[in-house]
UniProtKB/TrEMBL annotation:
This is DNA repair protein RadA. GO terms for biological process: recombinational repair. Gene3D superfamilies: 3.30.230.10, P-loop containing nucleotide triphosphate hydrolases (3.40.50.300). Keywords: ATP-binding, DNA damage, DNA repair, DNA-binding, Hydrolase, Metal-binding, Nucleotide-binding, Stress response, Zinc, Zinc-finger. It comes from the Bacteria. The middle region has homology to RecA with ATPase motifs including the RadA KNRFG motif, while the C-terminus is homologous to Lon protease. InterPro entries: AAA+_ATPase, DNA_repair_RadA, P-loop_NTPase, RecA_ATP-bd, Ribosomal_Su5_D2-typ_SF, Ribsml_uS5_D2-typ_fold_subgr, Rubredoxin_2. One of its GO terms (molecular function) is damaged DNA binding.
Length: 457
């Protein structure tokens, strides 16, 4: 706990960006160098510097005398979440969970809290956006063990800290970090200085008490977690819950993890009883009715370590006038434009007077370059009105020279395709892997060679 702060008599000016104070107004902040962040209107009555309790001098230990901490990892039992976390919740870790409004952040956080807590030692759920009754209603709908979660409807940072320090729950959730108000920082709750103060304080509490803390965070229009840019550096784990809000699937992506690999994907479906994990996604991301149409191609993406069979759909239509449009959902637009240029230059597919629309079925966002060739074949197939076999998958990265490059974890991808009953695969010629029993492999060295495999439906 902090020593109580005494109010100083004089007025100070506080930087809204970093919280550093100045005795009088100045254009540039001494702390972060930002201009015009100390406005006259931001003048607040200053507080005396925090009195730090005297501490013993820290003693360093050689690594062999420090345990590896394996016993501090606590699996939550939600395997899709544990996979992204790197095995489970690590004691004393600070986990940031971001996602679009209404995507299911509070649902996931509550389900996790209920799994980790037990009657007698419940998890602590600090609700800043909802009342305790609303959280209880959701918990009932989700079928949570109600005695395993204690709810605190509170937005004051010090009250949240006090609750964590005194009760030492097995897990604490702060929903959301943008609603916390820190009396020691300037600005309204949710402002960069407030969020930074709240996260710094909770980081200290997590490390001191060993209580893992999940911070639910809002995202900005650009998709980044709202708050100071340094926020993601301060926490141990950053997770994003993605998906189409009105769709059924939700994907939990680990973008930073100090205790496990990043890029891992957890798959869930949103149901009335909460998020249900999809251990074996299988054909969940396929739309059987649309296969066999020009522009539809199956691929096996590898997000993290998991192979996932997904369907890519492209539509190419003449540009009515002016500049051709290119839109993409679930795939990077810049990468799509690059592939369109490769198709134009290296495979003579005319697209300069055509609108190109690309969609990855099921709301999956693909960051894996191993799906490049499938995207190129989908666009070329749509442009030329040619089909590709619904029983085949396409895997390979595409280079600027139109060459097809090796994709990572090809064996795992082909294994998944075979398990789902596919009979053929287009793969890079450079890969020398033997073909799995049930798959006929077409090895291609260039995009142009791959397009020869398209045929009239
Ligand atoms: N009765 C219900 N049946 C099925 N799904 C529901 C039901 N109630 C809510 N949901 C789902 O839960 C989602 C809201 O979940 P949740 O409140 O956890 O989202 P959130 O990310 O915390 O939202 P916010 O950003 O507003 O805090 C809804 O979009 C809906 O998909
Ligand atoms: Mg919420």
């Amino acid at each position: 706990m902090n020593a109580p702060t005494a109010r100083a008599a004089r007025t100070e000016y506080v930087c809204s960006d970093c919280g550093v104070t100045a005795p009088k107004w100045q254009g540039r902040c001494d702390g972060c160098g930002a201009w015009n962040t100390l406005g006259e209107g931001m003048a607040v009555v200053g507080t005396a510097p925090r009195q730090r309790p005297s501490r013993p001098v820290g003693r360093a230990l050689t690594l062999d005398r420090i345990g590896d901490g394996a016993d501090q990892v606590r699996p939550s039992g939600i395997t899709e979440l544990d996979r992204v976390l790197g095995g489970g919740v690590v004691a004393g870790s600070l986990i940031l969970l971001g996602g679009d409004p209404g995507i299911g952040k509070s649902t996931l956080a509550l389900q996790l809290a209920a799994r980790v807590g037990v009657a007698g030692a419940p998890s602590l759920y600090c609700a800043g956006e909802e009342s305790a009754q609303q959280v209880a209603m959701r918990a009932e709908r989700l079928g949570c063990r109600l005695a395993s979660v204690a709810v605190l409807a509170e937005t004051d940072l010090e009250a949240v800290v006090a609750a964590v320090v005194t009760t030492r729950p097995p897990l604490a959730v702060v929903d959301s970090v943008q609603t916390l108000s820190a009396s020691e920082a300037a600005g309204a709750p949710g402002s960069p200085a407030q969020v930074r103060e709240a996260v710094t304080r909770l980081l200290g509490v997590a490390k001191e008490t060993g209580v893992p803390i999940v911070l639910v965070g809002h995202v900005t229009k650009e998709g980044a977690i709202a708050g100071p840019r340094t926020l993601e550096h301060m926490v141990d784990v950053v997770l994003y819950l993605e998906g189409e809000r009105h769709g059924e699937h939700r994907l939990l992506r680990g973008v930073k993890n100090r205790f496990g690999s990043t890029g891992e994907l957890g798959l869930f479906s949103m149901e009335a009883s909460g998020l249900r994990q999809l251990d074996a996604p299988g054909r969940a991301f396929l739309d059987e009715t649309s296969l066999g149409v020009p522009g539809n191609v199956l691929t096996v993406a590898c997000e993290g370590t998991r192979p996932l069979v997904v369907e890519i759909q492209a539509l190419v239509a003449p540009t009515p006038f002016g500049l051709p449009r290119r839109t993409s959902s679930g795939f990077d637009l810049g990468r799509l434009q690059l592939l369109i240029a490769v198709l134009e230059k290296r495979a003579k597919v005319r697209l300069n007077q055509a609108d190109v629309f690309l969609n990855v079925v099921g709301g999956v966002r693909l960051a894996d370059p191993g799906v490049d060739l499938a995207v190129a074949m989908a666009v070329a197939g749509a442009a030329r009105d040619l089909c590709f076999s619904a029983r085949a998958v396409v895997v390979g990265e595409v280079g600027l020279a139109g060459e097809v490059r090796r994709a990572s974890r090809l064996e795992a991808r082909l294994g998944e395709a075979e398990a789902l009953g596919q009979t053929a695969a287009v793969v890079p010629a450079s890969s020398r892997k033997p073909s799995p029993a049930g798959l006929r492999l077409h090895r291609v060295a260039t995009v142009a060679a791959a397009l020869d495999l398209l045929s009239e439906g």
